[in-house]
Amino acid sequence: MYMPRTPVKGRGTVWAIEHRFHSDAREAFDDGWGALEQAAKEEVLAPGTQLVEENVKSILAGNESPDIHFDLSINPYRGCEHGCIYCFARPTHSYLNLSPGLDFETRIIAKVNAAERLREAFNRRGYVPQLLNIGSATDAYQPVERRLRITRSVIEVLSEARHPFSLVTKSAGVERDLDLIAPMAAERLAAVYVSITTLDARLARVMEPRAAAPHRRLQTIKALTQAGVPVGVSVSPVIPFINEPEVERILEAAAEAGATSAFSIVLRLPWEVNPLFQQWLEQHFPDRAARVMARIREMRGGRDNDPDFGSRMRGQGVWAELLRQRVRKAMARLGLDRHRIELDLTQFRPPAKPGEAGQASLF
After folding, report:
1. Is the pLDDT at 43 greater than 80, yes or no?
2. Angle at the Cα of 90 (from 88 to 95), degrees rounded to 5?
3. Alpha helices in 236-317 (DSSP H)
4. Domain 47-342, what fold?
């Protein structure tokens, strides 16, 4: 298959890598006319984003992973225009017969009836509230949310039902919904985690090209904190020799902005993320690509990826332990280990049933 060599501004990758279920194998070849060299030199235009609206049968996904600290998740979108090259959710596009590479950030599936399905789920007999997270796989505030407002409609149902939730995002778009989130936070029903991987704007532009700039995410932490919303920071993923040297500085900046808790996860390279990341690494950091991968393999028991529960989030070996110590010490020094965000599951009440919600506003 042809592997584009030229990065494109605004995209994490332009490689439409075939997914792992693809039955045909293709390989580029030289036809004697210099086609491969010419293709490598040609400017590749940034492909536009295509939106597919989908009516889903359900919106709540249960969590069976023992190393993830929530029970249910809601992802209003499949695929993510932020284009983070390291995103562990990229392989999910394979199930749609789409590329985890270019398609993941240009073919966005919007679950337009998410709020309706959530209302139905909450009204089922025997539903018991559990810890719920929004945006655990793909960002609920990616650019298309400005227009579709699916995430906002979901939070409106959560607010009506007094159902607690946490939310993780790289976007300043969450500030739009402070009118809903802040009152819930005051009742211990909402918390937000902002993901900050680097303070270097140049690195952010190539690593997560359409996410908010690092300084803008710090402003978002400040805005949320000032509104009374408990905020944690996710310094994830940590990539050796890329953003790893910044870990302490990121935690310091987040604490100064008002974050009260933090966590960190080392880089994971499941399935198609592995070749995509390694190509990106060779494109942008050829001087240290081999060194980065050697350290990743050291943390992963000699493999590029470790899928095992527990170790997959933390890594193993001397370097992984040193990183954990650095994070723990920085958190202790900054007070980011003193405030555990506890949400209240006791306030839940079933919302109005589908069809009744709109009628209530008429009386």
Report:
1. no
2. 125
3. 247-257, 273-284, 289-299, 311-314
4. pyruvate-formate lyase- activating enzyme (3.80.30)
